[in-house]
Amino acid sequence: xxxxxxxxxxxxxxxxxxxxxxxxxxxxxxxxxxxxxxxxxxxxxxxxxxxxxxxxxxxxxxxxxxxxxxxxxxxxxxxxxxxxxxxxxxxxxxxxxxxxxxxxxxxxxxxxxxxxxxxxxxxxxxxxxxxxxxxxxxxxxxxxxxxxxxxxxxxxxxxxxxxxxxxxxxxxxxxxxxxxxxxxxxxxxxxxxxxxxxxxxxxxxxxxxxxxxxxxxxxxxxxxxxxxxx
Length: 230
Ligand code: C5P
What we know:
Elements (H helix, E strand, L loop, with lengths): L2 E7 L5 H11 L3 E5 H12 L9 H12 L3 E4 L2 E4 L2 E2 L7 H11 L2 H16 L7 E6 L2 H5 L5 E6 L2 H19 L7 H17 L12 E4 L5 H13 L1
Parallel strand pairs: 1-6, 1-7, 2-6, 7-8
Antiparallel strand pairs: 3-4, 4-5
Helix pairs in contact: 1-9, 2-3, 2-4, 3-5, 7-8
The structure holds cytidine-5'-monophosphate (C5P).
């Protein structure tokens, strides 16, 4: 069967970048960013009229999730044939995604698709690196390698802030957000992830816990590469 590597952990520990670099080092692995799928569904909910978290809203969001096609090309995500990789990283999406990810029917639809990706990772691939919050615990409980990335809130917020600062500078735009606001966002997302009723974030059985607070991205990827080759 396909070799499955599950990477879970709190927000802003570099899961996506780590997974992307890890698949570059390992031969024949596909990268599946499950958070990107929740973000993409969130983008698709923006035109909805009912109040967020109302029953009518949850039903419409679930219908959207059940009628969406995804495919990954490298680390780019296509939703219904359109590349949404950039749009899903906006602050608006980041702030709205926890409510969407809390809808049980959204989770069951996406989990089904994630399992399909993992069992048929595509031509020439011998496995997947899938990252998210519930991969080792729920989506792929039999994964051969499970990683849990942790990190201090302030360090994670500083990294996100630096990234946003660099992106704003590159685009020649002012950055209308403070470090305190980013830290509050990170904390709010952690709470939502830990307290979600369906598949909350937790360390899966057999998961190797890595605290990323004092690791560089290169060190982090190096550690995972060693574990994957064992
Ligand atoms: O990893 P990323 O921050 O891009 O994920 C976006 C959001 O999607 C998270 O805040 C989390 O609430 C949700 N998520 C989830 N289950 C996953 C992956 C992400 O609920 N497996």
